[in-house]
Write a structure and sequence with these properties.
Blueprint lengths: L1 E5 L5 H4 L4 E3 L3 E4 L8 E5 L5 E7 L4 E7 L7 H17 L10 E6 L8 E6 L2 E6 L2 H5 L1 H11 L5 E4 L16 E4 L6 E4 L2 E4 L15 H10 L4 E5 L5 H8 L4 E6 L2 H14 L6 E5 L2 H4 L9 E4 L11 H18 L4 E7 L6 H15 L3 E7 L18 E7 L1
Parallel strand pairs: 1-4, 9-10, 14-15, 14-17, 15-16, 17-18
Antiparallel strand pairs: 1-3, 2-6, 4-5, 5-6, 7-8, 8-9, 10-11, 12-13, 18-20, 19-20
Helix pairs in contact: 2-4, 5-6, 9-10
Length: 391
């Protein structure tokens, strides 16, 4: 195993258990290292700091262990079993009522650059580094061995690996084959299209926030913007909403929403969907709605885009706050990791101030508990949300 030596004083973040080594902190590399290789990390005096995967880019190493240990089958098995044990203890895994959950959440489960979502008997594995991609087969085997309900593992990493990686990944079944893609979340059914859908097929990270929305939905007129597969719409319908309108610019997303609504609420005329641009749809909703959900895709995928992203959040929230009915509830989110909680809240504050309406914060929201945040890796807190009451 090759060794990476850090510049003086660049070990401080590692000693605080932050799992990323940035390229600017590297003083030298002993020998030739290929992307995805395991490397030892040492300080300038030769003291061991950690072992992890090497990669090309601003993050040079993702630390897998801060102990001097072998990264072998036993290591992977311990990590996967620990993640599953936590979710069992938190009662997330409940095949009868909830068979959709995140099994592995990267740094949050001390497995940087690895995401595994479960839908019924199928696990969807996404590698965000070459090192994790190279380990995909052994990871799949351990998942099936250790988790009795999982029979299939599908690797969906074509779009998640670094663009500089000199490999050609293929989305494929590592174990098993195509199975029923109907999953269950709190007794609500949905199609999880891991073959062609976004991410792993569904946005599991909003589970608790959807449940909260359900408690506010009764007798309200609901507008779900950027609906994708209609998750919030399904919960609003289940909560007794008077009507639910789902909006997304993608006709494919609207088709998925309609399929999910028909599966759970066949022939229910309370729901209607619109394949339209969100900003245009919000130009004139004229106080038709008293419960609005704004859950847009990431406006800023890197720090250079933060300024434009914040303007986008401000414009979007201004239109919703200005036009929501008196006594309305607004669920508003940012999933941009580059945008901090403080920045997002300031953008929403600015939008509210511009409308001149009285606005109160009822809840401050984050990602679901099966998307844990490593306390030593605050960058893992990517989902920010506010629930607002608008007078």
């Amino acid at each position: 195993m090759k060794t990476i030596t850090l510049k003086p004083k660049k070990e401080e973040s590692v000693l605080r258990f932050h799992p990323w080594i940035f390229s600017g902190a590297v003083a030298k590399i002993s020998g030739k290292v290929d992307e995805g290789d395991l490397v030892r990390v040492e300080d300038c005096k030769g003291n061991f700091l950690g072992v992890g995967h090497y990669q090309i880019g601003s993050i040079a190493v993702r630390i897998l262990s801060f102990s001097d240990e072998n990264i072998d089958r036993n290591f992977w098995q311990k990590k996967i079993c620990a993640a599953y044990f936590m979710r069992k203890k938190l009662k997330i895994v409940d095949v009868q009522h909830n068979n959709a959950y995140r099994l592995i959440h990267g740094e949050g489960d001390n497995l940087p650059a690895l995401v595994v979502d479960v839908y019924g008997d199928t696990a969807i594995l996404q590698a965000h580094s070459v090192g994790m991609y190279n380990a995909r087969q052994i990871l799949a085997e351990i998942i099936v061995e250790e988790i009795p309900e999982i029979k299939n593992v599908f690797c969906k990493s074509e779009g998640t690996l670094p663009f500089k990686a000199q490999i050609e990944p293929t989305d494929e079944y590592l174990i098993g084959s195509q199975t029923d893609c109907i999953a269950k979340e709190n007794d609500i059914l949905f199609y999880a299209d891991w073959l062609k859908g976004q991410k792993t097929g569904f946005f599991i990270d909003q589970r608790e926030n959807r449940s909260l929305l359900k408690t506010y939905a009764k007798n309200r007129n609901v507008l779900n913007m950027f609906c994708y597969t209609g998750g919030f719409s399904l919960y609003a319908m289940s909560g007794g909403a008077n009507l639910v309108h789902s909006v997304d610019s993608s006709a494919k997303a609207i088709s998925l929403t309609d399929k999910n609504l028909s599966m759970n609420f066949p022939n229910d005329e309370r729901h209607k969907s619109f394949a339209k641009d969100a900003f245009k749809f919000l130009e004139n909703i004229d106080q038709k709605y008293d419960l609005i959900i704004l859950d847009p895709p990431a406006f800023a995928k890197h720090r250079d885009a933060i300024k434009n992203a914040l303007q986008g959040y401000k414009r979007l929230n201004y239109r919703a706050i200005k036009q929501i009915s008196s006594g309305g509830i607004l669920f508003t989110f940012s999933c941009s990791q580059a945008v901090s909680k403080e920045q997002f809240r300031l953008a929403v504050f600015s939008a509210a101030a511009q409308t001149g309406r009285n606005v109160k914060i009822l809840h401050q929201l984050a990602q679901a508990i099966d998307h844990p945040i490593n306390i030593y890796h605050p960058e893992g807190e990517y989902l920010k949300g506010l629930v607002l009451y608008v007078e």
